[in-house]
Amino acid sequence: MDGHKIIKTLRHKDFIKVTHTGKCFEDGAAIYAKEIRENIFLLFIILKDIDIENIQALIAHFDCFSSIGLKEPEQIMFYLSIKDKNDLHYFEQYLKASHN
């Protein structure tokens, strides 16, 4: 599974692409967010590296949707980082499981 398939899957699951102008995330990162509870958001951050795609997933508390990408989260409750191409298989399985 590559970054394009992941982005397509996230869009299909009603994630919204967030433009970030703050210093919370690296420049060039593609950020997709979805509110899962009041002011609690599931974020997927896809960073482009020279050799691999680095995917990060987190559940975090922000004061509002518009503060994502501008401010640091008030609290991070879950964080997952995938840096190895072989680990994308497990990430793909997670996305399929969350669809059910």
Attribute tags:
five-stranded antiparallel β-sheet; alpha+beta; 100 residues; plasmid; 37% strand
Please give a structural write-up.
- Keywords: Plasmid.
- With 100 residues, the protein is α+β, with helices and mostly antiparallel strands.
- It has one domain (3-99).
- It is built from 2 helices and 5 strands.
- It has helices at 3-12, 88-99, and strands at residues 16-18, 30-37, 40-48, 53-61, 75-82.
- A 5-stranded antiparallel sheet has the order 1-2-3-4-5, covered by helices on one side.
- A hairpin with a 4-residue loop joins strand 3 and strand 4.
- The protein is globular.
Strand segment count: 5
Spatial extent as radius of gyration: 13 Å
User: Could you spell the SSE succession in H and E letters?
Assistant: HEEEEEH
**Helicity, as a percent range:** 10-25%
Which stretches are poorly predicted, pLDDT < 50 over at least 5 residues?
Answer: none
Q: How many domain regions?
A: 1
Sheet having the most strands: 5 strands, antiparallel
Overall geometric form: globular
Q: What percentage of amino acids are in beta strands?
A: 35-45%
Distance between the termini: 19 Å
